[in-house]
Amino acid sequence: MKKVLGLDIGEKRIGIAVSDALGMTAQGVETYARKGEGDAAYIADKARELGASIIVAGLPLNMNGSEGPAAQNVRAFMAEVEAMGLPVIFQDERLTTVSAERMLIEADVSRKKRRQVVDKLAAVYILSAYLDTHRA
After folding, report:
1. Nearest Cα to 20, choosing from 63, 58, 52, 65?
2. Angle at the Cα of 132 (from 103 to 46), degrees rounded to 5?
3. Over its length of 136 residues, how does the chain's per-residue pLDDT go in tens digits?
4. Which of 11, 12, 68, 125 could lock 96 by a disulfide, CB 3.0 to 4.6 Å apart?
5. If DSSP states are collapsed to H, E and C, what string results for the chain?
6. Would the pTM count as exceeding 0.85?
7. Which phi and psi angles does 80 have, rounded to 5°?
């Protein structure tokens, strides 16, 4: 298995994680502050820099499994990334940010620090879920 890039895509920030080459673990890379123009190129460049051959993007489905405006925004953004030659797969991300936030609170991480890392941690959760279901 090749490296996989995992993304938690929000309106203001994108959490980025990457797998190891064996597809066993996911490590947080960074939280990227969105700027608008150039965001898709940044993600494509980051994937190439980290040696990822595929991108797994968290898809924010509604609790009933339907797609709302947030999911449509993620699909539109990832279409831009895919147009740059990188294959994209979507992974259900329901409650990943909630889980990440809860874990950070339990670890007694300050509110300011949580804001800086919650998206990166959510990307780790999304990527880990994908790796768990696609492990040989």
Report:
1. 52
2. 75
3. 689 999 999 999 999 999 999 989 999 999 999 998 899 999 999 999 999 999 999 999 888 888 889 999 999 999 999 999 999 999 988 767 767 777 777 777 777 776 777 789 889 999 999 999 887 4
4. 125
5. CCEEEEEEECCCEEEEEEECCCCCCEEEEEEEECCCCCHHHHHHHHHHHCCEEEEEEEECCCCCCCCCHHHHHHHHHHHHHHCCCCCEEEEECCCHHHHHHHHHHHCCCCHHHHHHHHHHHHHHHHHHHHHHHHCC
6. yes
7. -65, -45
Residue 98's pLDDT is what? Answer: 67
Parse the chain into domains and list their residue ranges: 3-134
Q: Determine contact, residues 14/43, Cβ cutoff 8 Å.
A: yes
* Measured distance CA(84)–CA(104) in Å, rounded: 34
